[in-house]
Amino acid sequence: MDTKIIILDENNIDEKLIKSAGDAIRNGKLVAFPTETVYGLGANALDEEAVKNIYIAKGRPSDNPLIVHISKVEDVDLVAKEVPAVAREIMDKYWPGPITIILPKRPEIPYVTSGGLESVGVRLPSEEIARKVIDAATVPVAAPSANLSGKPSPTNVERVIEDLQDRVDYIIGGKSSVIGLESTVIDCTIYPPCILRPGAITLEDLKNIDENIYMDKGIESNNTNEGIKPKAPGMKYRHYAPKAAVKIVSGNANKVIEEISSILEREEKLGKKIGIIATDETINKYSTSIVISLGSRKNLYEIGKNIFESLRKLDDLEVDMILCEGIEEKGYGVAIMNRLKKAATFDIIEVY
């Protein structure tokens, strides 16, 4: 497949190119485009064959549901047959934005899109290019992250090209994703609503809408839920993983540095090439040049933005192992650690 790559200027968007991308989606083609969370790979959510091609292009398990993207709030009624009052409140406050709401699906949404479920996740992104492409398509757009399945999600167009060139019809590039972690996913087919994937809109944020909203306990588990259909992306399969093995060291800051340094010394003596993911506060504490800072612990949103690209950079350097400092699991730190734990397949050392 000959992929057409389009790089758009966010300050001067070429409407003709947007229209051609929207037409392509409506007619069954695959189009990758930027969103504020990560880059997405879009297809007509109503077209079974187009959606099947997403799974093929990504190498994605077919029971892993896709999120359906819309360009304006009222289009939720094209996707969902029912929108509970609490879901409307969430939409009013956080759409457009990085939250996916699971709702009962309309019959028009094929089961290949919903992962065989009677429910479907719906999102209205805030990224302007994304909304323009979806609007030009004139259909709801199914769009998982625009990467090969299991790899760290792409936050810039270069990584999309690296993974999907010659696998999809169009790749649209804009600026790097401003959030860098996938959307919060909340299940509103039940009451009280349940968060199935943490993201930039936190449990604490959502409790301001309804204090009964809670986090699925399975988020903290390495349970693969064999035989159970996942209701949201990332619940069942290995996700966000680089080629190298990832080990997280979490706990007391000084002891984390000591433990990582000890593992580093031991593994280097065995001839291993080790990469370290640290923070601004600790980047100078390690005796290796292969160390990347996610940012300051005072700014968790900066850290979240840099996780996936840091994992990919260490893959570029062909390290054998990645040692990563843990982050306090509070507020947005829950989402950050969710992605890191998935990348590490829950290989965690706690030191206190």
Automatic annotation (TrEMBL):
Reported EC number(s) for this entry are: 2.7.7.87
Q: Which GO terms describe its biological process?
A: regulation of translational fidelity; tRNA processing
- Compartment list: Cytoplasm
Q: Which residues form the YrdC-like domain?
A: 15-201
Q: Keywords on this record?
A: ATP-binding, Cytoplasm, Nucleotide-binding, Nucleotidyltransferase, Transferase, tRNA processing
* Reaction(s) catalysed by this chain's protein: L-threonine + hydrogencarbonate + ATP = L-threonylcarbamoyladenylate + diphosphate + H2O
Q: Which GO terms describe its molecular function?
A: ATP binding; double-stranded RNA binding; L-threonylcarbamoyladenylate synthase; tRNA binding
Binding site residues for L-threonine? T37, H69, R123, A143, S183
**Record GO cellular component, one term:** cytoplasm
The organism's place on the tree of life at top rank: Bacteria
Q: Which PANTHER family match?
A: SUA5, THREONYLCARBAMOYL-AMP SYNTHASE
> What is its biological role?
Required for the formation of a threonylcarbamoyl group on adenosine at position 37 (t(6)A37) in tRNAs that read codons beginning with adenine.
Stated name of the protein: Threonylcarbamoyl-AMP synthase
Which source organism does the UniProt entry give?
Clostridium bornimense
Q: Which gene encodes it?
A: ywlC
